[in-house]
Amino acid sequence: MQHFIDVILPVPLERLFTYSITQAESEFLKAGMRVAVPFGKSKIYTALVFKVHQQQPVAYEAKEIHQILDDAPIITQTQLTHWQWISEYYLCTLGDVLRAALPNSFLLESETIITKNNDKTINDADLKDEEFLVYEALHHQSSLKLHDLISILDKKNVFPVINSLLDKDAIVLQEEVYEKYKPKLVRYVKLNSQHSESGKLQDLLEELSRAPKQRDVIMTLFSISAQTKKPIKVSELSEASDASPAIIKSLIDKEILTEYHLQEDRVAYSGDPNEASKTLNIHQEKALREIQQSFEKYNITLLHGVTSSGKTEVYVKLIEEVISTGKQVLYLLPEIALTTQLVSRLETYFGGKVAVYHSKYSSHERLELWNNVLENQPKAQIVLGARSSIFLPFHNLGLVIVDEEHETSFKQFDPAPRYHARDAAIVLASLFKSKTLLGSATPSLESYYNVKQGKYGLVEITHRFNDVMMPDIELVDIQDKRKRKRMTGHFSDRLIEEMTEALRVGHQIILFQNRRGFSPIVECTTCGHAPQCPNCDVSLTFHQFKNELRCHYCGYYTAMLKNCMACGSVELDTKGFGTEQVQDEAQELFPEHKVGRMDLDTTRGKFGYDKIITAFEQKEIDILVGTQMLTKGLDFRNVKLVGIMNADNMLNFPDFRALERSFQLMLQVSGRAGRTDERGKVLIQTYNPHHRILHQVSTNNYAEMYLEQMDERHNFKYPPVYRLIKITLKHKDYNKVNIGAEWYATGLRQVFKSHILGPEFPPISRIRNQFHKNILVKIPPQQSLSKTKKAIVKINNSFLSIKEFRSVRVILNVDNF
Ligand code: ADP
Ligand code: ZN
Ligand code: ZN
């Protein structure tokens, strides 16, 4: 009988590929192990075994695998099932999912180095034939690699031999990855054994009598080790004895001290929990009970709790319960970088059990966490992470929490898989027969609709913690203020009044403006020309600090112009304003106070956010200007005033979710005000003080916003009533995109008759020199989703098989955000 494996290759090709394997390999290989396989003319890829079977492929001759890379699966069966769901639901390949899921270092080939164990003498007679061959080879060569063994033994599955040699203590293994993976090592020292015998110490101290500093080091070492009986770090010793590392080095050189290294986890956190979780107040207590009851009936429950109602403390109680049963918890957050506060809060309760999966971590750090989760280690029992943490190899996931579930950043935009982490996490939890808790002060229409449809349970907290009142929200008509000359730059007299008062009594202020840079448009007052990005169809944003014009779509930048490019006039005017301008104006209005800024431009780098958040917490900043980064779950105790500089650019954004988004953003940023005792104040500046959404924000009326927005979604056939698949065609040739999109839409209309919108150019139709054209497929509630997707895939395949369209990039985005 012949044996085969189907593998997932990390390439965007639709199907799995079949390779042939031997009988022995088929007994060894399991789904979820990696193999190296030849692909294409001469490439070797790391592939993942999906299935072991006996069916010869019909269309092609199966090639042999190159090498087996794991001796146990690194991907669980549950993950493979989850990946399949993602690939089917979001119309992408398993290869796309594989790429997104695995830390990069897994896709490199792992090289195991085998050396002889010199501490043990092995009698040749105790070795089987194959073991002997390997052992014999190690007499001639100090180390062997996997592929050496493969040629020595003339077979690909060499792990059983390695394992039995390991059992006999004949060899030692060293794992090394091509991209050098080095666990972080910490330097330790101990006394050289010849000095540590009793009686020898006195001699040593005498010997060092003329080097008092070195002598001190030895004394300190002795007293520490007498107390702790633990290994002693060089850094620790240097600090305790007040000796420079150079002095310790000289003791090592003299062979009085011996240096050694121990591995330390990169992503290690301060050891033990140091605080019991908080006692819940009656509203939280009630919510906790209701959630537990709700879970008896529903797999998914939405916790709708106003800002600062203490949702986090409720999550903490649920987590305590789940981890006491030994199960794992996944706590999803929209942007991990913004949640330093939450991380340290959870660490005080759960200590080293909290692990963070961070997009800014290196792939090695992620690999470490991956292995900890895979091995079900206590130190990764609670995983806190942004969207990609749904790909971790959980073993017995007991609970998923999705905090700020309304955040659109849970949806991956580019590249494929274009998944929604909240929805994919719900599916993941269901594979473990576990529950999901969604939490928000401003739930997405999608989730609330699911509650109304009877799919999710609902629990509410309507009181803020300590019964602090919801902030007082006041709308300021800036059209009127302009007319009456009550504006100073972009600040109304009301805002200046409130700011002056807040600063006088020592409160902090947040100013929200949803645009970065200084001003988004530079215009010539003589001819009206506005400088555009050469690669995209957008005006360049002026950044005053660097005196540059920048494109926010492709990153293009150039020095600010002195003259109009069209007519040469020197009279250039700026229109619109961003965070940079707000910061400048605020500083001018309040010169004695410190004004800070938090946006994409000020938070680059691994700890960019932390620095600003900490400075604000420490009151080193009085006024913090920022973009929507400020809205996400931050807890600043001393902020009493929030100013929203301009509500209109949010409300007028061309997107069917714009009003829902505006409501969420404004309420979330308002929620940063007055979180402790006194009532907070929020000022919203707008040209449309009668806008319905602004009234709903100022009265915190989620229910009304929901009903009105759902009406619109019904009328215009948008989610969550209809489902949406957005098809985007991209090409640098304008005509190709146009003709291609027409062809595609015609194909769709033949199948679906109605509910196809477009093709249409988006508001920004060219980005990075690529023209974009969109087609929207709206799927009525009663229409089968899977049949619809099948039809789309079919049309897509025929489209891509037409020669002239082959170079057009097609992007399928399911549940477009
Ligand atoms: P939310 O996530 O609902 O906006 P938080 O969980 O951040 O609210 O809670 C708001 C504030 O109230 C935090 O500073 C938190 O420490 C405090 N808090 C919440 N619940 C309790 C409690 N039971 N005991 C003491 N302080 C609490
Ligand atoms: Zn001009
Ligand atoms: Zn650009």
TrEMBL record:
Top-level taxon in the UniProt lineage: Bacteria
Annotated source species: Gelidibacter maritimus
Family that this chain belongs to: Belongs to the helicase family. PriA subfamily.
Binding-site list for Zn(2+) 1: C524, C527, C564, C567
Gene Ontology cellular-component terms listed: primosome complex
Alphabetical list of Pfam families matching this protein: DEAD (PF00270), Helicase_C (PF00271), PriA_3primeBD (PF17764), PriA_C (PF18074), Zn_ribbon_PriA (PF18319)
Nucleus among keywords: no
Domain Helicase ATP-binding: start-end pairs: 292-461
One GO MF term attached to the UniProt entry: 3'-5' DNA helicase activity
Cofactor: Zn(2+)
EC number: 5.6.2.4
Domain Helicase C-terminal as annotated: residue spans: 559-713
Cofactor-binding details, from the entry: Binds 2 zinc ions per subunit.
Keyword annotations: ATP-binding, DNA replication, DNA-binding, Helicase, Hydrolase, Isomerase, Metal-binding, Nucleotide-binding, Primosome, Zinc
Gene Ontology BP, a term: DNA replication, synthesis of primer
Function, as annotated: Initiates the restart of stalled replication forks, which reloads the replicative helicase on sites other than the origin of replication. Recognizes and binds to abandoned replication forks and remodels them to uncover a helicase loading site. Promotes assembly of the primosome at these replication forks.
Recorded catalytic activity of this chain's protein: Couples ATP hydrolysis with the unwinding of duplex DNA by translocating in the 3'-5' direction; ATP + H2O = ADP + phosphate + H(+)
Descriptive protein name: Replication restart protein PriA
InterPro entries noted in UniProt: DEAD/DEAH_box_helicase_dom (IPR011545), Helicase_ATP-bd (IPR014001), Helicase_C-like (IPR001650), P-loop_NTPase (IPR027417), PriA (IPR005259), PriA_3primeBD (IPR041222), PriA_3primeBD_sf (IPR042115), PriA_C (IPR041236)
Assembly mode: Component of the replication restart primosome.
Keyword field contains Metal-binding: yes
